[in-house]
Write a structure and sequence with these properties.
Strand order of the largest sheet: 3-2-1-7-8-9
CATH class of the domain at 1-30 and 80-120 and 166-241: Alpha Beta
Helix content: 25-40%
Oligomer: single chain
Shape: elongated
CATH topology of the domain at 1-30 and 80-120 and 166-241: Rossmann fold
Order of helices and strands: HEHHHHHEHEEEHEHEEEH
Largest sheet: 6 strands, parallel
Distance between the termini: 16 Å
Low-confidence stretches: 35-39
Mean pLDDT: 92
Number of strands: 9
CATH architecture of the domain at 1-30 and 80-120 and 166-241: 3-Layer(aba) Sandwich
């Protein structure tokens, strides 16, 4: 029995599956990630991307922030891929308890998933820093220069920037879901981003599976490691489950 067959067997036997995903889930939709050799961190900008996507940079250089944000994080023209779709089907079948994602693109919800915990927020939600009125992503990405509220306040994406903390309620739900899972599938993440990666230590179920093209610091911690593309793996899962 090969590794994917083993995973399919575990999925069929499991009653409470949790999927923990990173940028690799969405790169097969055409989006760029941050840390791979072709990622945003290796492109040349006036400022390093990790500085641009920080709280202090947003406050002090709002126009430069939005120049980068609109150019690189706009998902218009992109759509969910096979991984998002199969996860949605697993949720509908009652096997998948929740999806925990580090992504901010909203593709899981677009694919039909309802139980999604967004550790780093979403570009789909944006709010005025003065009156807290909410705006969708279309308003932000189509705005000239800095998007402004009708009250005149600056609109901020509801995403967690560097130097900002994660939402406490999302953290609580994430820890609960991972601790109650009998199968935890980690996919498309380097597991180098903290505190997100640390939540995996709360898993005490039967099987811990990692699907990622490259090695991670958690490979030896897992019951099964599949070094392949998520799309390839989930195409086979779709046929069998």
């Amino acid at each position: 029995m090969d590794k994917i067959d083993t995973l399919i067997k575990w999925i069929s036997e499991s009653k409470r599956i949790v999927f923990f995903g990173g940028a690799g889930v969405s790169t097969e939709s055409g989006l760029k990630d941050f840390r791979s050799k072709d990622g945003l961190y290796y492109e040349s900008y006036k400022f390093p991307p990790e500085e641009i996507l920080s709280h202090h940079f947003f406050i002090e250089n709002t126009k430069d922030f939005y120049d980068f944000y609109k150019d690189k994080l706009n998902t218009e023209g992109f759509s969910p891929n096979i991984t998002h779709i199969v996860l949605s089907e697993l949720e509908k079948s009652g096997r998948l308890s929740s999806i925990i994602t580090q992504n901010i693109d909203g593709f899981h919800q677009m694919a039909g998933s309802k139980k999604v915990l967004e550790l780093h927020g979403s570009i789909k939600r944006n709010y005025c820093m003065d009156c807290h009125k909410f705006y969708d992503e279309r308003f932000v990405f189509s705005s000239d220069s800095i998007p402004l509220c009708t009250c005149g306040g600056i609109i901020k994406p509801d995403v967690v920037l560097y130097e900002e903390g994660l939402d406490e309620e999302v953290i609580k739900k994430t820890i609960f879901e991972i601790s109650k899972a009998d199968l935890l599938i980690i996919g498309g993440t380097s597991l180098n981003v903290y505190p997100a990666a640390s939540f995996i230590h709360y898993f005490h179920g039967k099987h811990l599976v990692l699907i990622n093209r490259d090695k991670t610091p958690f490979d030896d911690y897992c019951d099964l490691v599949i070094n392949d593309s998520l799309g390839s793996v989930f195409e086979k899962i779709k046929k069998e489950v």
